[in-house]
Amino acid sequence: MKRIFLFFFVLLALPSTAQQSITIEACYNLAAKNYPLSKQSHLLASQNKLDTEIISKTKLPQFSVNAQATYQSDVVEIPIPNVGVTPLNKDQYRATLSVNQLIYNGKIAEASTLVKLAQLKTKQKQVEINLYQLKQQINQLYFSILLTQESKLLIAAKQVQLRAKLKEVKSGISQGIILPSSDKILEAELLQSNQQLTSLEATKMTLIKTLSSLLGIALEPDTLFQKPQVSLALHKELNRPELDLFQLKKEEIESNETLISKQNAPKLFGFATGGYGNPGLNMLDNSFQAFYTVGLTLKWNLFDWDTTKKQRESLAINKDFVENEAEIFKLNTSVELYKQQKEIDKIESFIASDLEIIKLRKAVLKTASSQLSNGVITSSAYTTELTNLYENENTLLRHKILLQLAKANYNVIKGH
């Protein structure tokens, strides 16, 4: 008894290897996170941070150092004799340190920062759109893998039926009820189904590898792809990221309009200059001396030849372009949704027909199975009916997968 208890304890202690499974929603999230394009959003944010810091530096004091030594062919002299003023030297020297401080410029720096932020949002939204467009590619790969996965199960079910019938046929041959070599046809059908499984497995491996490259992770060959039950977002509004992009483009234009309106605002600077040279500020003192000046500078462009007005008109045209692009996008999306809905309706009608056909095929196969057991028909005739039923079931399976794919694509087109 103790040995039995110890055996079960060891089994429980062994690490369990659960089969990896994944959903289509997880694929969307992984692609958005790991696809190389997603790095651009972080790069854009870093670039915007640098641009903002550059703009903010314009508010800081600006320092400059100047030094010069000159020799002049002539200098200023006082044309009055005996006044006791020494003439200036023809060689003159000067070194200065200047500080300029922006006091007021109509808040251009703040407006420029807002323009950079609007540009960042627009560029990041474009990255999001490019990533969103991967969804239909993911849909195609995911549902293709799902089709191979389900097809393998269908072939396995067919093999179970073939093996059962093969056992029955061999028994009939031994009893003399069924013609000899009838089992060979069933065995050949089993071998052919094994080839189909091998082909499906190779196709699935290729699809999984392609999908893995989009998701940025290594999916195992035996990964279980869960079947989604997709419901159409019929009563929801269009929610595509492109619509957000159009709005962000308009906001970027508006921020540029604000910046333009501040370009002709008066600009006030404070300055201070200190220096040492010969001569200094006193031109009558022919010696090295220290000096300084402080003051204010006001700059105001009173007339710009309607440049600002024309820039605003150009931006207004850009805004009209954006509005037009939004209208075209909505129209094209509506057409795509209509086509996709018609595709869904068509596949649903195919599925209804498939179910009727399979019902009839099963009745025929049931009769053929009984006839084969009684030696009325050959195994070749039976496998023909079995293959017909399998092909119809495979068609139904393919239509069901295509229906889910069409619904998933419909939701992607609509933005849900």
TrEMBL record:
Coiled-coil residue spans: none
UniProt keyword list: Cell outer membrane, Membrane, Signal, Transmembrane, Transmembrane beta strand
GO cellular component term of the entry, any: cell outer membrane
Cellular compartments annotated: Cell outer membrane
Main subcellular location of this protein, as a coarse class: membrane
Highest taxon of the lineage: Bacteria
Cleavable signal peptide: 1-18
InterPro entries (UniProt xref): TolC-like
GO molecular function list: efflux transmembrane transporter activity; porin activity
The protein's name in its UniProt record: Transporter
Protein's organism: Polaribacter pacificus
Species classification: Bacteria, Pseudomonadati, Bacteroidota, Flavobacteriia, Flavobacteriales
